[in-house]
Amino acid sequence: MIADPPIVDAHAHIITRRMPFREDAWIRPDYEYTAEDFIADLDRHGVAFGIVTAASLYGDYNDYTLTSLARYRRLRATVMLEPETDAATIRSLRDQGVVGVRMQWKVDAAPPDFHSFPYRKFLNRLADCGMHVELNASADQQAIVLPVLAAHGIDVVVDHFGLLRAPDGMDGDGFQSILRAVAGGRTWVKISAGFRLGPGLRRAASARLLAEAGGDRLLWGSDAPFVGKESAISYGDTLAQFQELVPDAAVRRRISDAALRLCFF
């Protein structure tokens, strides 16, 4: 299968056996999916660019991601950072191809106080460097965090359809807060890891997001190497699913262009 070029895979993870797991890692893959493996998948399927997404399994161990950025100019990345990270470090990461900082917490944890001095300072530094916040959060957390980020004026990318794990799904406060944030003009949503949702839910969520956000506020990602679902999905399957959920080639091109504008040019 050949994708509609140019396309950006806005969500994949690098995994090597040398990368140290956090003590609370929810799973510990015993295989490798290197930058070379990711590039090979992109080339095999006609995908032009890729974004390496920070994985919570490894916390702020970003070393292999940065090495991959130095090796492949067609890649960009998000990383995980502590809010105390200084401005010079953030500028250096930006210059290496880092485009955002991923934030996520335990699903039932209260998010940090974004009104506090450390986080206001951190968000200012990210915004000043043109970086976005990549948010992988539960519905309850989104409902709290997204309005604060919108008021701060920083770009936000919401992962994986907004997760949609809450019992009230798209009718709940979390998903509704996503739609309000998208309408504000500084938030994008990833149609990624749809294979982790039931087919009816991913189709309904895609249709709603397309109706409310349009292609200009959506991104697509494979979620390779499909951690925990490795034997159930292939890279080609994710592209086929993308084309099923977004059947209009012109809209798929707008989604690609949105990723290019946000993260590459």
Global morphology: globular
CATH homologous superfamily assignment: Metal-dependent hydrolases
**What structural class should be given to the helix and strand makeup?**
alpha/beta
- Mean of all residue-level pLDDT scores: 93
Largest sheet: 8 strands, parallel
Annotation, overall tally of beta strands: 8
Helix residue percentage: 40-55%
Q: If helices are DSSP runs of H or I spanning 4 or more residues, what is the number of helices?
A: 9
Taken in chain order, the helices and strands follow as: EHEHEHEHEHEHEHEHH
Name the beta content range.
5-15%
Domains, number: 1
Provide a descriptive summary of the structure in words:
The protein has an eight-stranded parallel sheet, sandwiched between helices. It is an alpha/beta fold. The protein has helices at 35-44, 63-71, 87-96, 117-128, 139-152, 173-183, 199-213, 235-245, 249-263; strands at 8-12, 49-52, 75-79, 98-103, 132-135, 156-158, 187-192, 218-221. The longest helix has 15 residues, at 199-213. Helices cover 40% and strands 14% of the residues. The protein has one domain (8-263): Metal-dependent hydrolases (TIM Barrel). Helix 4 links the parallel strand 4 and strand 5. The mean pLDDT is 93.
Give the key terms.
single chain, 265 residues, alpha/beta, TIM Barrel, 8-stranded parallel sheet, 9 helices, 8 strands, 40% helix
Quick structural gist:
This protein has helices at residues 35-44, 63-71, 87-96, 117-128, 139-152, 173-183, 199-213, 235-245, 249-263; strands at residues 8-12, 49-52, 75-79, 98-103, 132-135, 156-158, 187-192, 218-221. The protein is an alpha/beta fold and 265 residues long. It has an eight-stranded parallel sheet, with helices on both faces.
